[in-house]
Amino acid sequence: MKDIQIKKSEEQSSQPGQENKMTPEPISIRDNYNGSDKLKDKVVLLTGGDSGIGKSIALHFAREGAHLAIIYLSEDDDARQTMAEIENEGTRCLLLKGDIKDEEFCKKAVNETISHYGSLNCVINNAAMQFPAEHIEEITSANLHTTFETNIYPYFYIVKAAIGFLNENDTIINTTSVTAYRGSEHLIDYASTKGAIVSFTRSLSKSLAKKGIRVNAVAPGPIWTPLIPATFNGEDLENFGKDVPLGRPGQPAEVAPAYVYLASQDSSYMTGQVLHVNGGEIIGG
């Protein structure tokens, strides 16, 4: 895909950001991506599915025949647009607005998904927040708590609520990050939560292997999503993603097919693993 030209003026004032205000607009799915019913009639619960990587996952899953339940925080316009695009693929979409830091809301979201669709086959933990800080002394207690309470606690809340509805051959997919492997000097708390997600994925996969429920993760590199203009500014925003070997930030459409693979029978002999879609960074793990 072509290089993305990001301007300093694209910064947004609050997280998790709004896709409908981004220029250039992220590419959520390629026109030439042809679905083949890999996920036909599967029911998928996805956090942070209104925009960015989450929206792209939702559209790819819909094109593969899945029905979606999308959790989002507050971006109503983005959520409604994503719902319309999912339904345009010929599948169904349930919007669930709320804060995943609240365990009771997470339980409610799972129960509403079951009530609406009657089943659940795939859980995708994807939503995240980040607060850049140049030095650890600059990480406020409030931002530290928000980062952990958004990025890792809900993984436990949602899986605990959903596990009783998942069966053999069902899947759980978690979004970690390249920062979990190479670190990030200005995202110490965020990278720490992403490292926790790697350990969560590996441990949960062992716990559920006997039940035939597979647990894997995807570790994206720099991807052009609403979270980026909502958290970076100035030169950091303009130079975003240019330091990877491919020399550019990635598009959500370049990440989402990895989730399709992990949710489908194509990956039936894979659990406890992480797929690295990061523009060419060579990392361990």
UniProtKB/TrEMBL annotation:
UniProt keyword terms in alphabetical order: Oxidoreductase
Domain of life: Bacteria
Spans annotated as Disordered: 1-34
Biased segments, Basic and acidic residues type: 1-11
Keyword Oxidoreductase tagged: yes
A Pfam family annotated for this UniProt entry: adh_short_C2
Amino acid composition bias (Polar residues), ranges on this chain: 12-21
Keyword flag Oxidoreductase: yes
Any one GO molecular function term: oxidoreductase activity, acting on CH-OH group of donors
InterPro entries cross-referenced by the UniProt entry: NAD(P)-bd_dom_sf, Sc_DH/Rdtase_CS, SDR_fam
PANTHER family xref list: NADPH-DEPENDENT ALDEHYDE REDUCTASE 1, CHLOROPLASTIC, NADPH-DEPENDENT ALDEHYDE REDUCTASE-LIKE PROTEIN, CHLOROPLASTIC-RELATED
Family affiliation: Belongs to the short-chain dehydrogenases/reductases (SDR) family.
Protein name (database record): NAD(P)-dependent dehydrogenase, short-chain alcohol dehydrogenase family
Source organism: Maribacter stanieri
